Amino acid sequence: MFIQVVKSKIHRVKVTGACLDYIGSITIDRDLMDAAGIVEGERVYIVDNNNGERFDTYVIPGERGQGEICLNGAAARKVQPGDIVIIMAYAYLTPDEARDFKPQVIFPDTDTNRLI
């Protein structure tokens, strides 16, 4: 048996863009991806603290050090630039593995989306 647990979390970053005319996904600064242990193409769940929206999509890498958090495609309708979001990725582990597992959680600067 497997259970799903939080693997990675980018806590409270500011949405920098919303691009409706795009295939879909979320663009995340590669520095944030690396720090949180999130990989290109990984499924992530997004919670918008401003409006309560909760949805999932997949990750594409943005430029390093730019603080980009851009929702693309249909997800762009669920956020506004300036909204604060939490981005989470999950993993399937056995209950024994999950007991000792520690997720990678990062707390970037909310104004710049850069690592502190």
Short characterization:
With 116 residues, the chain is mainly beta.
Provide structural commentary.
With 116 residues, this protein is mainly β. It has one domain: Barwin-like endoglucanases. The protein is built from two helices and eight strands. It has helices spanning 30-36, 95-100, and strands spanning 3-14, 17-19, 25-29, 43-48, 54-62, 69-72, 84-93, 104-106. An eight-stranded mixed sheet has the order 2-6-3-5-4-7-1-8. Strand 4 and strand 5 form a beta hairpin. The protein is globular and about 40 Å long. The relative contact order is 0.36. The mean pLDDT is 97.
Comma- or semicolon-separated keywords:
single chain; 116 residues; mainly beta; Barwin-like endoglucanases; 8-stranded mixed beta sheet
Task: Calculate the mean pLDDT score and round it.
Answer: 97
How does the major sheet shape up?
Answer: 8 strands, mixed
CATH C-level category: Mainly Beta
Rg value:
14 Å
Helix content: 10-25%
Helix vs. strand class: mainly beta
User: For the largest beta sheet, what order do the strands appear in spatially?
Assistant: 2-6-3-5-4-7-1-8
How many domains, as an integer? Answer: 1
The DSSP helix count reads 2
The best one-word shape is globular
Assembly status = single chain
SSE string, helices as H and strands as E = EEEHEEEEHE
In CATH, the topology is named: Barwin-like endoglucanases
Number of strands: 8
